[in-house]
Design goal:
Blueprint (H helix, E strand, L loop, with lengths): L1 E3 L4 E3 L4 E2 L6 H15 L7 H9 L13 H4 L1 E10 L2 H17 L3 E6 L14 E7 L2 H8 L5 H10 E10 L1
Antiparallel strand pairs: 1-2, 2-3, 4-6, 4-7, 5-6
Helix pairs in contact: 4-6
């Protein structure tokens, strides 16, 4: 269906249907509402358009993109085998507060997994962390607060540390 903005009529291939769009400001209002509810930026000038092009574009027109790093949750999936009990104790004692400081949550921490199909590369303790946004998750991982714990973990365990985004 094609909408004629000047006449306010819509034409379909088989017949003529009419949609009365009262004014262009109505369309602008609808676009702004959609932008507000979907958290979409609509740049008003060339600087804004350039900034939008630099964002992660998920298939929208170059001037109409969503910054997905602000809206999608960030997750870490960790396969960890502790090799030093003292290092594990120091890490476990402090990690909860550092994760919470970045709005993170432990969704799971289990000593073993049950493989229902195929083969699993996970052989040890499985930990799943969730942060409200991918951006916040990566801030935590690269933070000064986590750096000493990261060192302890690297010296005291063998790990596979995987990051992903999701809802």
């Amino acid at each position: 269906m094609v909408i004629g903005l000047v006449t306010g009529e819509a034409h379909s291939g088989q017949g003529r249907e009419s949609i009365h769009l009262t004014t262009i400001p109505t369309l602008v209002f609808i676009a702004l509402l959609l932008g507000y509810y979907l958290d979409i930026d609509v740049p008003q000038n060339d600087v804004g358009k350039q900034a939008s092009r630099q964002r992660i574009d998920r298939g929208h027109a170059e001037w109409f993109s969503i910054d997905w790093r602000r809206t999608m949750a960030g997750y870490f999936l960790v396969d960890i085998e502790w090799t030093d009990a003292e290092g594990r104790a120091r890490y476990v004692e402090a990690i909860g507060d550092v994760v919470a400081a970045y709005d993170g949550k432990f969704l799971a921490s289990v000593p073993e997994v049950q493989v229902l199909e195929g083969e699993s590369p996970i052989k040890n303790r499985l930990v799943l962390l969730r942060f409200p946004t991918a951006e916040r998750a990566l801030e935590w991982y690269r933070s000064e607060e986590y750096a000493p714990l990261h060192s302890i973990r690297e010296q005291s365990a063998r790990t596979n540390f995987v990051f992903f985004e999701g809802d």
